Each structure stands twice: as structure tokens, then as C-alpha cells.
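User: Can you predict the 3D structure of Transcriptional regulator? Sequence below.
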Amino acid sequence: MKPKNPLSQVSDYDLRLLRLFKTVVECGSFSAAESVLGITRSAVSLQMADLEKRLGMRLCQRGRAGFALTDEGREVLRASEVLLTAVENFRSEVNQINRQLKGELNIGIVNNLVTLPYMRITHALKKLREQSDEVRINISMSTPGEIERRLFDGRLHIGVIPLDLPLSGLEYNVLYTERSSLYCSHEHLFFGPAESLDVGQLKSVDAVAPSDRMNSDVVNLHQLLNCTATASDREGIAFMILTGSYIGFLPDHYAANWVDKGQMKALLPQQLFFESRLATATRKGQRTNLIVETLQRFL
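Assistant: Sure. Here are the predicted C-alpha cells for Transcriptional regulator:
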């Protein structure tokens, strides 16, 4: 598959194929990428084969064993993300010069914020859309650590994360405060009357802790627990609590649905809680972006 000559130039068609390749990887298979790309699986396969021929290397394995990137495919994916980000940054700069609200907004949001009652992010995105129908909004839900990494490498324009341990390379704008309490499920032995529970008993049962970094106040609260499991995000913590075998901290707005159904309850909520400031985050020194500026005005 090696070409006679190295890749001499990158055309618009090459960029389109690289975007297709990136989408296939994000979806995890050709068939899963069909609906996202709006083309048939056979068309996806043909275009992937064309890209591999143009680059002179096998990018992925596909077949009964499933979809998997080759070593070359992982390197091409990394280079593609850098290239496509640079192309989008160029377009944003040109539109900034022309003061046109046009292009992509890549925003990373910490998991499970949609249940917050304030809805400031939702309203801001709605207002942005009303300003221009030529803005493509790409939302990724992730952990705070992953959002920070993507802000630093340029894959995200803006993030929404807890402002627990601010990083010097990011700029923050506080949106609101989120309260988290300690919860158990209705199948847990602590689900009984509140007056029968005291803090000293917490060590007698298993607890789940977040695997992301925590500030000192949150660390101190978790030291009251017997943390025998970790979860990468809030949804993972909720899964563990709902097994009936673990207790753990969840944002009150996120736990409210299970509380209303009688499936969860807060344990000693006047004592065992912490508050986190939620903020937008952008990379210090990043190029001016009219779309991000407009979104921040609405927040």
C-alpha cells in the first residue's frame, strides 16, 4: 500500500477524508458512523480505503474481530486532530477579522449538569444559536481533568467545570454554586431513620469516591468514609450507590430524581455536604474567538 512518492500536499478532499476518519474512530465502527455522517456503511468503507491508499498505510483493522486502530492509525489520528484544529482556528481568525459569527464552537461540559435548575448554559447556547445559524456547536461531556487537557491542547474552545483546584494556565468565570451531599440507595442498611445514624458509623460500610483530583475540603469528607471503589464521573458514582452496597457524594440536583422516587436519600445532610463553584474555563493567551466571546456574554 506504500505510495511511490510521499504525500506532497493536503487537498480539501483529504481534509474531508480525515474528518470522516476522526468520526469513525469517535463512533467506534463503520456502521455506527453511518447515521452521524449521513452516508451508507459501504460509502464509509470506500472512503476509508481511499484515505488509506492516499496515505499509503493501513489505519484500522475491521472485520469479525471488531474495529481497532493500527499503530499508524493512532499516529494519523493524533496528527489529524492537530491539523483540523489548526484549520478551524484559521477560519475563526478570518471570521473574527470580518466580525462574522460563523464556524465551530467546541465546548466541554462536566457530566450531569443538565439537571441544574439555573439553566444558564442552555440559555446561553440558545441565544448564541439565535444570533447565527452558521455556528456549529459541538458538545462533549467529560470529566474535569479531560476537559482541562482538551482546553490546553486546543481541542476545546471553552469548558464548564468545577472550580475546585484552578490551574494557572486557564481563565475562569464563575457561573453558580453546586451543593453535593452523601447518598445511599433504598436498598442500603443506612436508609432507615436518620436519628439512628452518626458519623462514626460511616466507616463500617463501603463507599465510592471520585477518581479525579479533589480539594482539601472534599478529601477530608471522604476520609470519614471507607472508600473501597472509585468512579471516573458522577454517573459512575450513581451506579455504585444504586447497587445498594455503597454510599457516595452526588450533586443534590443530580440525585433529586432518585430522591423523589424514594430510591435514594441524603445521609446527615446538615453535616455531610460540600459546595463547588462551577465556572467556564478558557486557555490563557488563546486567540480571540468571536463565537466564544458571544457565548460568554450570554452566560
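The chain has a mean pLDDT of 89. DSSP finds ten helices and eleven strands in the chain.
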